Amino acid sequence: METAHLEYHYRLKTSDTVIVFIHGIQGSPLQFDYLIKKLHGTYSIENLLLPGHGKTMKAFIKSNINQWQNYVDERINLLEKDYENIILVGHSMGCLLSVQSALSYPQKIRGLYLIAMPLNIHVTYAYIKNNILIAFSKGEKNDVITAARKGNSTSVSNPFEYLTGIPRYIELLRKCKLTRVLIKRLQLPIVIVQSETDEIVSNKSLQHVENRQNIRVITAKASGHYYYSYEAQEQISQSLEDFIVTSRQ
C-alpha cells in the first residue's frame, strides 16, 4: 500500500460493488491499509482523503465539517451511477459522515461498517499521554504511537499549532450529538466495532444503539482508537468481508 497520505482508487470492471473508506478528523487513508489489502481484487475501492487533510494544520483549519460531509456525498453521488451496491466503512468521524450519507443516498448504500463510532467522547489519560509523546518525542516508538502517527495526516511546524484546530473539534462534538438521533432513523445493516480500550470513544456510545435489530456490535480486543492488535485486525477484516457479502444479498 501507499506510505503517503493520499487517496486510493481501485476500479474493478466486473464488480457491481464499491467499498468507500472514510477516515476521521485529522485522519488518513493509511488507517485502512490492512482492510484494503484483504479486499483488494474482490471489489472496487475508494479510499478517500477529506479536504484539508494530508497537508499542514493551516490547510486543515481552513476546511470544516460541512466540506467533509459534502465531499463524501459528492463522491457517493458519482459512484451510485456506476455501482449497484455501495458499502461505507468509516473510522471515528468517518462513521458520523457515513450515517449522514446513508440517509441522503438510501437507494444504493447497502450497509455501514463503523469503526470507533464516536457518539460519546471522553478524553482519557492515555489519550493525553500519547498525544504528548507524538507532539514532543519524535523518537518515541511503540505500536500504539506508530499507529497514531500513521493515522494523523496533518503536519505542524510546532506542537502548539494543534490548538488552532479546536474549532474543528467543536464542530465534531456537534456532529456526534446530531448523529445520536440520525442513526436511529437508519434501517440498513450496520456493524459497529468498539475497541476494548479506546482512548477517545466512550463505551456510552453503544447506549444509543441498544436493542436496534439492524445493528451488530463487535468488540476489538487489546485495541485502542488507532491501534488494533493483529488478532483484532484479523477479526475486523473477516467480519467486514462477511458483512459485504450479506449486505449485497
Automatic annotation (TrEMBL):
SUPFAM superfamilies: alpha/beta-Hydrolases (SSF53474). Transmembrane segments: none annotated. The active site is at 92 (nucleophile), 198 (charge relay system), 225 (charge relay system). The keyword Transmembrane helix does not apply. The keyword Hydrolase applies. GO terms for molecular function: aminopeptidase activity; carboxylic ester hydrolase activity. Keywords: Aminopeptidase, Hydrolase, Protease. Residues 16-216 form the Serine aminopeptidase S33 domain. It holds the Pfam family Hydrolase_4. This is Serine aminopeptidase, S33. It comes from Sporobacter termitidis DSM 10068. The lineage of its organism: Bacteria, Bacillati, Bacillota, Clostridia, Eubacteriales.
